[in-house]
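Support request, please re-run this one:
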Amino acid sequence: MPWIENPRVGSSILPLATNHFCMFLRHASCLIIAVSNQTQLTMSRFQQISASDLNSLLNASKAQLLDVRNDDEVARGIIHGALHIPLHLLPMRWNELDDETPLAIYCHSGVRSMHACEYLAQQGYTQLFNLQGGILAWANAGLPIVSKGSA
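Re-run finished. Output below.
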């Protein structure tokens, strides 16, 4: 069996996988568990919230609302009361947010806002909510969207 050299480590992956299969599987499973645990730790630092639950939260408390979509997306409409900070500017503007007040974050479909939640959790925010499904879920629930100027 030919050896496939890895120039970074100067050894072969193929002999490890074939000659020491059990050891290879053990290391691979440890890596998978470590990545899984890190993902669960990050996910537990914020909560997913439905559009109807977010609406109730906003009506019942003094929660902050953050829109992390791009300018062209926000031009089509925004949830009333939301502060707009595009995701790419969040590392420069996160200190504009009150870390003592619950913060709900949304984007178009919920992916970018999840990244924003992860970033803010790393900055020490503890009361974070990600709008599951983003503004699409908000609109599909029949909840109001306003123009940015009237938000």
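The longest strand covers residues 64-67. Residues 36-42 have pLDDT under 50 and may be disordered.
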